[in-house]
Amino acid sequence: MCTRVECCEEERLSDLLYNWFQLESLGINDSLSGRNETDEKIIQKCEENLRFENGRYVTGLLWKREPVDLRDNFHLAKRQFDRFRGELKTNSFVRNQCEEIIKFQKANNIVEECNEGETGYFMPYRSVARKDKNTTQARLVFNCSSSKRGDLSLNDYLEQGPNLNPSLLDVLLKFRIFKVVFCGDIETAFLMIGIAEDDRRYLRFLWNTNDKGKEYVVLQMNRVLFGSRCSPFLLRATIRYHVRKYLERYPLCVDMLENALYADDLCYGAETVQEALSLSAGAVSILENAGFHLRKLCTNSRELQALWIQNGLSNEVGFEQDCKLKVLGLVWNLDEVCVGVDVAPLLNSLESMGNTKRSVLSTVARVFDPLESLVRLLCALKKLCMKFGKEGSIGTPNCQMI
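and the corresponding structure tokens:
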């Protein structure tokens, strides 16, 4: 006799709603402090493990405990791989893009084939397509939190590390005060940092093969990947360690890279074009010395853009009037230092969803508004969400809309 125990969907949604409001009250109910002694030890350990080889930094995974008991997770990874392979058969566009990604990564030693028999960990993955991206529209997203019920995942064995990113609100507010502003992002930032050879076997995945005698081929990541618990910390800690070497020579650039570089996005500015040119050129040079490529430089100054092209910092010919770009998830109008929320997806979501409590929760949760420009609307919706937690079912239809 087999008994299957499942969490009630209603209870799960209620728990998610409760946890969401707990996060929303951070800074009101919880006292947030700076980095503690444990955080400093993690930073020190990471910096001690960093080494510079063949034009890039190499580091190990940030282990919380030794992975001696970590299960390989092969069966779950194989099941997801079979499902993924079936999806690719019906979507030639995504299939071609994913195959090009792996082909490029093999050629650049980002991934490599390995021996299946050696112990390690297999990561399930899926493809994610973004129609609004100007560069790669499809990408592979790895799941390092996957594990069989009762087992621990790879992420359970890894430290998260302290958050070394600056305040997102501070970055956006500073971005708005400058007369000449610019932004850019580091190309495939995570993949520019190597993983120590001993840790690569814990970053394995299955892939298609042209060998008719094989069902699949085993690949492993040689670089930091987006999806592991410690990856955001490793990226920021590596950049922080590198840029501080230039503190005496380029103090203004170092200050900018420490306080205006959020993850892999740089948003800053200056009062004059020459100052902006000096800062942006310095940032490109400093990051290039660590193997990072700062690309897609954009500015509200045509003069600065012309100087970038003249100095080989950008190959963009020019920008159109009323051109809008994404900056840290917000919309930026190039003709003025103005950033805001793109409400079109929000309105489309409201129009397409049913008149239910679930649809309201889904709509509110997807809004990214660090500047709180939609605070009146969100407050009204959140008050309605709080009411959901006190009465009725979250999935109840015919919810009165605001």
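(Above: one complete record from the training split.) The longest strand covers residues 180-186.
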